[in-house]
Each structure stands twice: as structure tokens, then as C-alpha cells.
């Protein structure tokens, strides 16, 4: 994009041609008021406060695109008169309840009223009753609403659900005399304000969305607020603790908003989680699943000594998951180095193996994409992931690319997803046969590969000869050879249309691939795609710190005779869930770093105190010497791409321009490269397939521990599946796997999936669901019968 120079209030500003003036001003710390605009979303012109003069003509800076040499004036007498009138109108019937309003102290209406100097009122109109509404986890007070439409915009342009819209309200009609007395833009805004209100787009009484809560985050006033947080604390009482999302590998920037519990209890409590919505949306799992702390009043020396003695005398294996910090992973690796323990982490082991095979053809140890490359793309392919629940933030970036970049894409997954389908008419969802991902990756390599090595090109040619039903071998879009393998109808004509004028490509690959029986070949093909196509590839780590653990730890495939479990039940267990032989701190009680899916090492901070022992205490008892766990931050392995940096030196913020300055980026490393892949073979059909996944907002036992998300796990199925198999929502069923294992549980309707593949969750530790999925593959063959 062409670089240009414009002038704003006499300040020369470098920018990209076509960039919105408001964004340029913000990047250069020039203040222009705006109540309706959100970065990376469509301008709505709802508030009109961002009025400026461009080369002597009035324009709205949120919607005016920059041209070289442009001169912008953000203030003059006429502009300030308009802004003052707009703010007066917003203030006319706004309830004077700031003392109890949840937004008071961080309310943008308050801020702009003071900034613009509204100290008298020249406008008036009778108000009408506007009753409050309870929309599940969110309450809506229309009397506080200024109809800025931020909630509507972020839901449509970022989240992708369009769950809210403006609806008609019977406000008092403006007298004609106001049109003569009120500045033009202020009158237009006022007229709309009297006629509109926010409503549920479907017309339902409550929000029927995935409930990410981003609408309440962007609300500039107190109209949309968490029903759990409402009237619990004043904003100015809360201390914001910067941290990283502990539940998923996006590791998005969050704040734990904490305060003492009450007058009689001085212990801190997390009252909510907030985020920098302009640049870092978050999902419902962390917005509502924040209070998973392990409350321990003191150190139990007897239990500690007992566990340490067992570790010294019996343990030969440490079993753990990837919901840990990089520093904890390094402690475990150092214990292995010193005592030769086996380290077992099935999640990170499979991911690491996949990355190694990927590197063998890509020539580098890491994938080249991230969430930002997805967001900037105009053609995105997703494969091997139930995106909405596996990695919601990847879904948000996909939707944002489709919406804001006039993008298009393909979504490959066996389970039909109505939420993903609703992102855009230019997103083609292809619900292929279970296990057919190998054919999909060959298709991508065939269609988009450039300058392929002769042996790869020859292989693809032989593949066409073997499978193709077409006599025309010259056309790149001849994919008839793959339809039968995929189990889908011809989509080549649609694909041709979707690819028109597309020049920025991303590919999202998920957990279905690295747990696949053919994961080795899938990784190698994916490596070739990164190397020989224009796609930026992202391989989603399945747990918060899967990438970090895979880079730090030398993992084993099989465990020994006696295991120490860290947050996993074993012969002796260390647990932050409060159900082990020795308590450990939860991630909201720890300092440390995660390695996010963006390949960025990001800091997280402790929101709450912890008075028990931690992993570092055990390591010190076993011969190491570190005062704090974060003393290990500087020792993270440089050979794996980490940098020699102290924890307290790590930055943790976004700049005004949206540049992420959190921690540091991993250094990628070259890898020995061989362009070798295996021959495509059809995958053995799985009859009556069952999937392993979680419902929206659930990620692990920690989200399920939080008070707003706690629930009992079930077998989740679509209405289509329930009807076909004559089940009712809430029926008890028995599942039986091919290996003879059985499980009795409730079947529950999931309105966010379609089709005939149900799924089991992992968030409920009381359900042994992984017993059905031998080898870790996420699909299994089962029989499901009703309990009589």
C-alpha cells in the first residue's frame, strides 16, 4: 500500500493511502473524540463527534480516507459547536445515577462531557419508559444506552455473529423548531437517537449467541454490563492486573480487575476480566471463567515433606498438561536433566512431533503466520479445527478478514457449524468425510503450489492419473479426483469465484491434524504448502502453552512405573484444582510467561495471592536454587528461539497504533529440509463417529471451576442428531466404544452445531471421555443407545 504524508493540526503524519484519518490521528497521539468507532471494524457514523475539516470541507474522520498532501483540522469554532450540541443531546435524559452505575469512573460519556465542557443544557425532550432486559450473562439498560452501535459493529465485524441490531423504539418525535435551532449533525444524531434502541437480532428474549461478552466490553456507558458484575463494585475501586489469557493459546492481553472482597475481608477478589477491545478481543472462556484460583491459607509442611520424599524415592515419571508457564516447563526439564525422569505430556508431544515433521519440509522450525496475518488476509483456509470452540480468536480474525478485507475462504471440517457458516456468504464450508484431511492438503498444494520440485510435481501428476475422472490434466482447478475421497460435491466453480482478486493468503491448521493417524504426512504436506505457496500458515496449539512446552521440554512417549502428576491425576498428584496430594497455585496466582500461538513470549501476572507451596519450592528441595519461579525466565532455551531476558524487563501493552508490545517474538530456526511426502491413501471409514471437543466457553477443568461456567459435562449433539436417533434433550444414554469401554451420561442439545456427529468434552474431570479416543485422534467409532 502506498505511503503518503498528510498534515493534522499542523503535524506531519506518515500514513498508508486509504487509511482512515481517525486511525492516523490516534497513531500520532492527536485527539479526536469518537464514541462509535472501533479499530478494525466498520465506521457507523452514529455519534458524529469525529467531525473534522479536510482541505476546508467537513468530513467524518472515522470514515474519511487519507490522500497524499491532505490537510486536516480537528478543531475550529463550527466543529466545537457541533460537538458541544451532540454531547448536550446525549446528556438530555441520561439518568443521573453515576454513583451506582457500573461504568462510572471509566465512562466515555462522562469523559467527553467534561472534555467538551458541557456545563449547561440548551436542549430538552420528554423521555419514554425503557425497561431493562436480562440477556443471559449480560444485562441491558436502554435508559443508559446512547445507541452508538459499537456492540452491533463488534459483534458483526469482529466476532462474526450479528447477534444485535438497532430496532425501532417509540421515542417522542422531535419538534420541527429543533431543526432550526440545532446544528445539522447534532440534529441528525438526535433524530436517530429518538427512534432507535438496541435489540436481539433474532427477536428472542435473550441473546442466542456464543456469549463472548465483547459487546459489554465495547459499551462506552453502562448500558451493557455483565449480569454477574452489575452493582458489585465501582470501577475506580478496581486495580487492573495485566495478564495473558490462561485458558487458550491466543494468550490474549487481559486485565484481572481486583479489589478487596469486602469491608470485613481484606483478601483480594477478581470481580471481572476486562480487555483492550480495540486490539485484543477475548472469548467467553476467560471473560467469565476467571475465578479458578486455589485458595490455600498456609503451607502444609507435613504434606510437602511427604511428597518430596516420594519424589526422591519412587517417582520415575512426571505427567503434566500444557496449562503451565514456560518457567514451570523449564523446571520440569531441569528435573529431567538431573534425575532422568520421563516427561509425559501427550498434548505437547503430538504437537512437537508434528512441528518436527513440518520443519522437515518447510525448512524452518516454526510456522510463518499468526493471528495478525489471518486478520490482514483476503483469502483464508481453515482445516482440522472446530474453530469456534478450539480457537475462538482465530475465528474472530477469520471473520474480520472476511468482513473488512472483502475476503473469502474455505472452512474444512466434518462437523457443520452454523456460527462459522454465518460469517460470510464468501466463506464456503465443506463438511468432508472424517479423516479426509490428507486429500484436502494435497488439493491446496496442487492448486496453489509454485515452482514445486520435480519429484513433488511428478507425484501430484501421478496422483491425478490414479484418481482423476477428468481427461484434462492441464487445468489447476480440476479437482474431480478428490471429491469422492472428501465425500463432497463439486465446488470448483465456487472456488474460482472466491479466488478472484485475492492476493493475501492464510491457512489455519488445527488439532485434528497433529492427532491424526497420518499426522506425519499431513505435517510434511503442510510444510510444503508454507514453502511453495503464498499461504501464511498457523498451526494452532491446543492448550495455552502447548507451543512453549514443546520447545522447552524433551518429552517421552511412554511413562515409567511410578508417576508424579502436575494437574493430572497420577500415583502422587500436585494440583491447582485442590484435589491432589499437595496444592499448587492456579495460573491466576502466578507470575510467568506463556508462548502464544503468535510465537510470542508474553508475561502474565498474579491477580491473587497464594500461601502454599509451588513447583519452584519442590525444585529447590531437590537441589535447585531459585528464589522465585520467574528467576527462570532468563534461562529459557535460546536454542529453541527464546531470548535471554529477565521477567521484569518484558513489556506488556499495545501502542496507540495497535502495535503489540508484549514480551518478545520467538526466533525461528532453520531445519534440515527434505521434500519427501507419502502417497495419498484413502482413510478407513469411521462409522457412527464421535468427536472430542468442548462446548463454547469451556476449555478445561479450570474454566469449569469458575462460578459462572460450572456445569456437568454431557454428550453434546445437534437437533438433527437428536431427531434422527429419537432422543430428547436431557435423555440418559450409554456410549460403547470399539474397545469395549462404556460411559453413561446425559445427552444435551448444542444449538451451535449441525449434522450427525456428536461430541464429548474434556472440561469435566469426572467424565473419563478420553478412553474412547485411542492414540489421541479426535474421532472415534461408538454406539449410542438410550438408557431404559
Task: Summarize the helices and strands and which ones pair or pack.
Elements: E1 3-8, E2 11-16, H1 21-27, E3 51-54, E4 57-60, E5 71-73, H2 77-91, H3 108-116, E6 133-135, E7 138-140, H4 150-159, E8 164-168, H5 176-181, H6 184-195, E9 196-200, H7 214-218, E10 224-226, E11 239-244, E12 253-260, E13 268-274, H8 284-288, H9 301-313, E14 317-320, H10 326-339, E15 342-344, H11 346-362, H12 371-376, E16 379-383, H13 387-390, H14 392-404, E17 408-412, H15 418-421, E18 427-430, H16 437-448, H17 454-467, H18 480-486, H19 492-498, E19 505-509, H20 511-514, H21 519-532, E20 535-539, H22 546-552, E21 563-566, E22 572-575, E23 582-583, E24 592-595, E25 600-604, H23 615-621, E26 652-654, E27 660-662, E28 664-665, E29 689-692, H24 701-705, E30 715-717, H25 719-724, E31 732-737, E32 742-749, E33 759-760, E34 779-786
Parallel strand pairs: 1-5, 14-15, 14-21, 16-17, 16-19, 17-18, 19-20, 21-22, 22-23, 29-33, 30-32
Antiparallel strand pairs: 1-2, 3-4, 3-5, 6-7, 7-10, 8-9, 11-12, 12-13, 24-25, 25-28, 26-27, 29-34, 31-32, 31-34
Short note summarizing the structure:
The protein has 788 residues and is α/β, with parallel strands linked by helices.
Amino acid at each position: 500500500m502506498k505511503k503518503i504524508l498528510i498534515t493534522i493540526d499542523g503535524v506531519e503524519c506518515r500514513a498508508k493511502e486509504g487509511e482512515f484519518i481517525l486511525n492516523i490521528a490516534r497513531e500520532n497521539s492527536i485527539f479526536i473524540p469518537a464514541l462509535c468507532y472501533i479499530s478494525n471494524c466498520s465506521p457507523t457514523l452514529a455519534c458524529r463527534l469525529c467531525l473534522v475539516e479536510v482541505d476546508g470541507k467537513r468530513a467524518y474522520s472515522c470514515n474519511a480516507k487519507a490522500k497524499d498532501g491532505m490537510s486536516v483540522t480537528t478543531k475550529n469554532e463550527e466543529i466545537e459547536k457541533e460537538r458541544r450540541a451532540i454531547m448536550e443531546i446525549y446528556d438530555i435524559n441520561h439518568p443521573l445515577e453515576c454513583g451506582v452505575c457500573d461504568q462510572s469512573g471509566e465512562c466515555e460519556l462522562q469523559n467527553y462531557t467534561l472534555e467538551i465542557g458541557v456545563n449547561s443544557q440548551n436542549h430538552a425532550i420528554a423521555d419514554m419508559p425503557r425497561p431493562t432486559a436480562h440477556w443471559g450473562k449480560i444485562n441491558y439498560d436502554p435508559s443508559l444506552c446512547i445507541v452508538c452501535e459499537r456492540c452491533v459493529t463488534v459483534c458483526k465485524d469482529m466476532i462474526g455473529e450479528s447477534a444485535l441490531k438497532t430496532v425501532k423504539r417509540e421515542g417522542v418525535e422531535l419538534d420541527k423548531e429543533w431543526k432550526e435551532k440545532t446544528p445539522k449533525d447534532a440534529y441528525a444524531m438526535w433524530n436517530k437517537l429518538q427512534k432507535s434502541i438496541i435489540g436481539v437480532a433474532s427477536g428472542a428474549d435473550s441473546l442466542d449467541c456464543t456469549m463472548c461478552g465483547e459487546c459489554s466490553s465495547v459499551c462506552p456507558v453502562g448500558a451493557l454490563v455483565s449480569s454477574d458484575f452489575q452493582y458489585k463494585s465501582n470501577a475506580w475501586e478496581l486495580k487492573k492486573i495485566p495478564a495473558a489469557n490462561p485458558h487458550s493459546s491466543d494468550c490474549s492481553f487481559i486485565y484481572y480487575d481486583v479489589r478487596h472482597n469486602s469491608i470485613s475481608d481484606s483478601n483480594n477478589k477478581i470481580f471481572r476480566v476486562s480487555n483492550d477491545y480495540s486490539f485484543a478481543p477475548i472469548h467467553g472462556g476467560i471473560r467469565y471463567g476467571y475465578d479458578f484460583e486455589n485458595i490455600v491459607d498456609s503451607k502444609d509442611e507435613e504434606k510437602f515433606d511427604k511428597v518430596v520424599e516420594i519424589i526422591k524415592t519412587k517417582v520415575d515419571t512426571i505427567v503434566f498438561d500444557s496449562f503451565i508457564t514456560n518457567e514451570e516447563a523449564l523446571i520440569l526439564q531441569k528435573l529431567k536433566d538431573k534425575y532422568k525422569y520421563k516427561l509425559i505430556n501427550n498434548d505437547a508431544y503430538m504437537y512437537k512431533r508434528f512441528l518436527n515433521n513440518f520443519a522437515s519440509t518447510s525448512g524452518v522450525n516454526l510456522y510463518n503466520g499468526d493471528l495478525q496475518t489471518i486478520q490482514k488476509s483476503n483469502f483464508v483456509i481453515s482445516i482440522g479445527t472446530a474453530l469456534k470452540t478450539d480457537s475462538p480468536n482465530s475465528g474472530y480474525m477469520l471473520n474480520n478478514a472476511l468482513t473488512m478485507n472483502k475476503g473469502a475462504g474455505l472452512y474444512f471440517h466434518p462437523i457443520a457449524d452454523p456460527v462459522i457458516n454465518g460469517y460470510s456468504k464468501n466463506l464456503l464450508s465443506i463438511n468432508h468425510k472424517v479423516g479426509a484431511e490428507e486429500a484436502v492438503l494435497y488439493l491446496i498444494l496442487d492448486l496453489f503450489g509454485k515452482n514445486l520440485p520435480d519429484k513433488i510435481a511428478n507425484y501430484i501428476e501421478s496422483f491425478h492419473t490414479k484418481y482423476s475422472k477428468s481427461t484434462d490434466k492441464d487445468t489447476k482447478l480440476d479437482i474431480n479426483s478428490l471429491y469422492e475421497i472428501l465425500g463432497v460435491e463439486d465446488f470448483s466453480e465456487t472456488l474460482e469465484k472466491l479466488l478472484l482478486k485475492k492476493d493475501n493468503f492464510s491457512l489455519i491448521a488445527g488439532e485434528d491434524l497433529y492427532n491424526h493417524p497420518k499426522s506425519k504426512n499431513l505435517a510434511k504436506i503442510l510444510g510444503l504448502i508454507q514453502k511453495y505457496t503464498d499461504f501464511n500458515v498457523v498451526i494452532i496449539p491446543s492448550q495455552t502453552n502447548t507451543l512453549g512446552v514443546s520447545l522447552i521440554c524433551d518429552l517421552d512417549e511412554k511413562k515409567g512405573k511410578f508417576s508424579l502428576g502436575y494437574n493430572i491425576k497420577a500415583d502422587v498428584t500436585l494440583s491447582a484444582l485442590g484435589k491432589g496430594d499437595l496444592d499448587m497455585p492456579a495460573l491466576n496466582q502466578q507470575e510467568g510467561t506463556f508462548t502464544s500461538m503468535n510465537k510470542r513470549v508474553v508475561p502474565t501476572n498474579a491477580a491473587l495471592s497464594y500461601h502454599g507451596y509451588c513447583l519452584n519450592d519442590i525444585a529447590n528441595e531437590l537441589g535447585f536454587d531459585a528464589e522465585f519461579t520467574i528467576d527462570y525466565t532468563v534461562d529459557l532455551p535460546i536454542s529453541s528461539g527464546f531470548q535471554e531476558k529477565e521477567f521484569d524487563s518484558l513489556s506488556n501493552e499495545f501502542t496507540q497504533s495497535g502495535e503489540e508490545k508484549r514480551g518478545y517474538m520467538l526466533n525461528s530456526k532453520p531445519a534440515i529440509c527434505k521434500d519427501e511426502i507419502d502417497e495419498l491413501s484413502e482413510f478407513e471409514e469411521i462409522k457412527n463417529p464421535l468427536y472430542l471437543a468442548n462446548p463454547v466457553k469451556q476449555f478445561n477443568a479450570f474454566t469449569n471451576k469458575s462460578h459462572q461456567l460450572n456445569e456437568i459435562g454431557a454428550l453434546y449433539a445437534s437437533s438433527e442428531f437428536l431427531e434422527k436417533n429419537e432422543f430428547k434433550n436431557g435423555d440418559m444414554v450409554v456410549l460403547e466404544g470399539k474397545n469395549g469401554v462404556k460411559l453413561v451420561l446425559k445427552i444435551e442439545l448444542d444449538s451451535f452445531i449441525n449434522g450427525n456427529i456428536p461430541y464429548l468434552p474434556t472440561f469435566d474431570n469426572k467424565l473419563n471421555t478420553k478412553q474412547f479416543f485411542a492414540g489421541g485422534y479426535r474421532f472415534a467409532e461408538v454406539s449410542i443407545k438410550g438408557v431404559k
